[in-house]
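Posting here for the record, re: geranylgeranyl diphosphate.
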Amino acid sequence: MNTLDYIKSLQDRASAVLASRLQSPGLSPRLEDAVQYAVNNGGKRIRPVLAYAAAETVGGEAGDADACACAVEFIHAYSLVHDDLPAMDDDDLRRGQPTCHIKFDEATAILAGDALQTLAFETLCDGGRDPALVVDMVRTLARAAGWQGMVAGQGIDIDGAGRHMGEGDLAAMHRLKTGALIDASVRLGAMSSGLASAGQLQQLAVFSGCLGLAFQIKDDILDVEGETEILGKQQGKDASRNKPTYPALLGLDAARARMQALFDEGIAALADFGDNAGKLTAIADYIVNRHY
Ligand code: GRG
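Prediction output follows.
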């Protein structure tokens, strides 16, 4: 199977499993429509794809990672819904469609994010795993998503609005805001197999740390070079809001070089996996070469 077919097969798997886990309880139809909308309006499913590939990289099967693949996508979907709110980034367009609070309303979008966050942890507890492993996985996701991870990154971003950031501060912010969930996706996928050693998890963490930052630099580059129609969101938004970005700080060429160096460092961390590293390598390549 070629790389794109492999990634497509994992994206399709994620979408099917997410649909099966999103059985609306039938209690609050508007809220449930908003939750479905937030998850099913065209995301690339990068985090589930990473979880699946990480499970396979340590000798497990993609199916081992179904629960954690859904959990990380639920957290991701919630984060985008809340990030788009007027009190945060105040965006009207996401994935080429109205953002959740525009399609529904602000209160419903807040609740949809809340519901997705708790559903992520409920989902992670499913799957009949060893209870000690489940506790470890719940803790891993909570740390990545919360005030030591993604929420902390968002807090730094909001506090820093309009202030100059050096490259060190910018990297530290993005390692939390974007990187922590990407790292959790990889490590949870490997953990879900029950086969990953502590040493392997450490090597995967180096890989995912580099990939998370490279992902963000690519996002910054696309904001400069991309096209609104392909991106599904307004091109040039970061620059128009004076946001600190890699291209603004380093220039486009140096930002690209930084992304490539992180890619190389991340792939080098997979060396001990031998041929098994091929899947994560292919996905990292897809991430840094994507057009949206
Ligand atoms: C609101 C607590 C809270 C956190 C929000 C992740 C985040 C923190 C905000 C998103 C802002 C943003 C656009 C960051 C750039 C990196 C990023 C997460 C891009 C979107 O991820 P993709 O490209 O999205 O995987 P799709 O649409 O494919 O799912």
